[in-house]
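Quick note —
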Amino acid sequence: MTFKALLATKTGDEVSTGMAEMQERDLMDGDVTVAVDYSTVNYKDALATTGRAPVIRRFPLIPGIDFAGTVEESSAPGFAVGDRVVANGWGLSQIHHGGFAQRARVKAEWLIEIPEGLSTKDAMAIGTAGYTAMLCVLALEHGGLTPEHGDVLVTGANGGVGSIAIAILSGLGYRVLASTGRLDEEEYLRGLGASEIIDRHTLSESGAPIASERWAGAVDSVGSHTLANVLAQTRYRGVVAACGLAQGSDLPGSVLPFILRNVTLSGIDSVNAPREVRIQAWSRLARNLDPGKLARTTQVVGLAEVPAVVERMFAGKVQGRTVVDVNG
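Predicted structure written out below.
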C-alpha cells in the first residue's frame, strides 16, 4: 500500500521538503496504525520543514507534530479499529514520522481518543496550538486565577496559541487583552472575545524590571523581552503561563516580580505532558471552546501547500490555525 507524504531530507546543511510516495514498509515502529485525516501547520513545523532550528533529528523524516484520524490496525489493548484518535508531540517530527502523511504508525501511549462532539477536523483545528492554549489555561487555574482577579493578557494573539487562548478565556468569563503587531486585524481578535488590543511593540523592547500592575495573568507565546515586560506588569499573586519563544529563548528580566509581587511563572510543555493531563486538556477543549470561534480561526490547505504556508508564517501573514487535509 502506498500513501502520500511530505518528506524532509537533508543535503549537507540544507533541509528541503517535498511531496513523496511512501510504502507501508516506510512506516516506523508502533502498535497502532492510523489513517490520517488532518494535520496542522504550527510554528515548530515551520522551523522543522525549513531547518531553521534542529527540530528534526534524523533524515529523511515526515514532519508534522500532530495528526488526527481513525485507527486502521492495533495490537494495543486500549485502541480498536475505527477509534478516532489525536496525537500531539512526543517524538513526532523529531525522531519519528509525523502527521504530514496519509498514514502513521505510533506507540499507543502517544494517542488520545478524540472526545465526543469533536470531529477529526475539529481536533486539528484545535491541534497542538489549541491543546497548548488549554494547558496554559489549566496552569492559570492551578495558580488560583479566576475571572474576578482581573484582566488576562494574551501575547502573539493572532497566532494559533493566541487565537485559541483568547477564545477559551473569554468563554470562561475573563476580560482578555490581546497583544499583536497586526493592529489591522483587531476585528478578528474582538470576534474571538478580546476586549482590548495592545500594540506588541509596547512590550517587545527592553523595559523596567518592575512596572505598574496591569493584568492578573497572562498567556505568553513570545518569550524574550516580551515575557520580561509581561512579568514586570503582572499584579500581586498573578500567574503567567509561558509556552513559546517567537521573539527569542532568552529572558532578560528580573527576580523583582517574583519576590515583590509573588508572581508565578508556569512553564508549559506540550510535547511530553503526561497522559492524564492530555486527557484533561482535550476534555476541557470539548466543553469550553466555542465551535463558532474555532471555525473563525481556521483555514484548510492540502499537503502540497504546506511549504507556502510556512513562508507566510515566517512573514507574519498567517492568522489563527492552518489545518492540513492530507487527502485533499
